[in-house]
């Protein structure tokens, strides 16, 4: 084909144009997952026949309006990776520094068998706030050092643990949609990553499920 100079300019403009469009359409896995999760329809369970739970919990579910300000955040923790296998979200308390040190070591120790190649596992510790300013500045320093602390603006207390659970799920949807699995746990729990990581990876490879699931223990 003979392309006259004018036509060749046009051809290259057209191809630049198409390159721009395809670049815009090429969303990252993180963006794709985040937008799917944000638009997921929540469906509520019908009351099982022999349940003792009051009807109103099934008939009029009122999702908690959880909009506490984030005091400490790590917005890029997951988005800097293409995809993660597992995100641990650990409910911890300010004074449990020793437990967090042990968990950090455990989380970094990923089995390197052929099954688990290129696997990325990340963790965050989540907190409310306390009235003790010493503890508050300790947690800020810890966040600056390890970049694995998330804190929201509600009072830390044992009875507010449900707020922490909601905080965990909300954070995982907003900032870590590219994780295949999310595990919400307390800081007194130990994890055998040499069993868990290959197991989850194997489940993922086998899985034909399109939906996400929640497993509770
Ligand atoms: C605040 O926390 C620190 C560190 O755990 C503790 O030594 C101090 O007694 C606490 N202060 C108050 C007022 O509870
Ligand atoms: C739980 O957090 C809310 C919001 O900060 C606070 O008003 C409430 O007092 C907390 N509950 C307890 C038991 O500390």
From TrEMBL:
Main localization, broad class: Golgi
Cleavable signal peptide: none
Single GO cellular component term: Golgi membrane
Biological process according to GO: protein O-linked glycosylation
One Pfam family named in its UniProt record: Galactosyl_T
Highest taxon listed in the record's lineage: Eukaryota
Transmembrane segments: 7-25
Membrane topology of the entry: Single-pass type II membrane protein
EC code(s) of this entry: 2.4.1.-
Localization annotation: Golgi apparatus membrane
Keyword vocabulary terms for this entry: Glycosyltransferase, Golgi apparatus, Membrane, Signal-anchor, Transferase, Transmembrane, Transmembrane helix
GO molecular function terms noted in the UniProt entry: hexosyltransferase activity
UniProt keyword annotation of Nucleus present: no
InterPro entries: Glyco_trans_31
Record's keyword annotation contains Kinase: no
Protein family per UniProt: Belongs to the glycosyltransferase 31 family.
Identification of the protein by name: Hexosyltransferase
Organism: Octopus sinensis (East Asian common octopus)
Gene that specifies this protein: LOC115214238
